[in-house]
Amino acid sequence: xxxxxxxxxxxxxxxxxxVIITTACTxxxxxxxxxxxxxxxxxxYSVNANKVNQISLSYRDRNVELVRSTxxxxxxxxxxxxxxxxxxxxxxxxxxxxxxxxxxxLKDYIGLDADKAHRYVKIAVPSGITSGIxxxxxxxxIDLSEVNISGAVDATTSNGKIKVSNVAVDKNLKxxxxxxxxxxxxxxxxxxxDATTSNGxxxxxxxxxxDTLKLSTTNGDITGIIxxxxxxxxxxxxxxxxxxxxxxxxxxxxxxxDVSTNNGDINLEFVN
Length: 272
Description:
It is built from 1 helix and 21 strands. By secondary structure, it is mainly β. The chain has 2 domains: 39-146, no CATH class; 181-272, no CATH class. The strands form 2 sheets. It has an 11-stranded mixed β-sheet, with no helix packed on it. Strands 1-4-7-3-9-11-13-15-17-21 form a 10-stranded mixed β-sheet, with no helix packed on it. Strand 5 and strand 6 (95-102) form a beta hairpin. It is globular. It comes from Peribacillus simplex. Pfam families: DUF4097. This is DUF4097 domain-containing protein. Residues 131-268 form the DUF4097 domain.
């Protein structure tokens, strides 16, 4: 009887080990398949700039960089996999649209930080491009550098910085961020320049406008250097719970400077 019980126990243990090993192998195989399906591949898209009069880019959880291309084409570099891809097309009205498409489930967002290197889109445009450019993202930064744009530019993000350096825009430049800073350096705008953020600072270095400069933030400071003579600007400024080195109202200027902050300081200087 003891031998029978011993044999039954041996068989039970053996069967248990088989189940455990089989389950582990199945999970391992499933994990390999999942990892394979989520591997990112670098992709690119190009179109002649003369065939486009508006560029609209809409993302989520992406850093976006706008730079100058070396030819007369618009080039977009991005990464995608089986769960995250992009829809890119040029409409009959010559509007280039790029929209992020995702079929991720909640569990797929675990370990999101590991994908940071691939959560990036780079757009290169030729110097003097006449197209309007509209960039929208969230949980990511927007970086514009070394570009001259004849059209208008609109950049919006939340939970991310906006950085603009060595950029010239012939029409209007508008940017909005939430929960982070807007940093501007060597920027020249012929139209209206409107920068707004909340829970972040606005820092300007040698920013020049021919028309209007609007800077507004909540829970942040506005500081830096504006390119141009003090007497060239009509000024309207307001701050609550902060210091302000500008007059609240100043008239007799060919250009307009409108600055406001809540729970922050204003400290701007002028240089020719």
